[in-house]
Amino acid sequence: MAGDSLKTRNSLTSKANSMTMNKERCPFKVGDTVVYRPSSWGHALDIMIDPQLQKGRSYKIVRIDNDVYIVVEGFENAPGGGIYWTEFSAQ
Predict the structure, then answer these.
(1) Under the phi-then-psi rule, with left for phi > 0, alpha for psi from -120 to 50, and beta for the rest, what region is 80?
(2) Domains contained in the chain, number
(3) For residue 14, what pLDDT band results from cuts at 50, 70 and 90?
């Protein structure tokens, strides 16, 4: 069991590194409406936010941090800041 826990942690760490190291700029702009379509990894991170973003729901972008992290209306003060842009799709 301990090995499974370590594998999971390493998998999440590897995914996190690949997302944050790939700093491809967000193709969306402030004011755009996007649909939250999280990957399983992104959804696992979102669980910490209360209230949570709703999968499949549309949101208006109010800010883009570091050219890659989207902050949507209603979540401007969420702990941890924005969510990586690849967790959203165009409406």
Answers:
(1) left
(2) 1
(3) very low
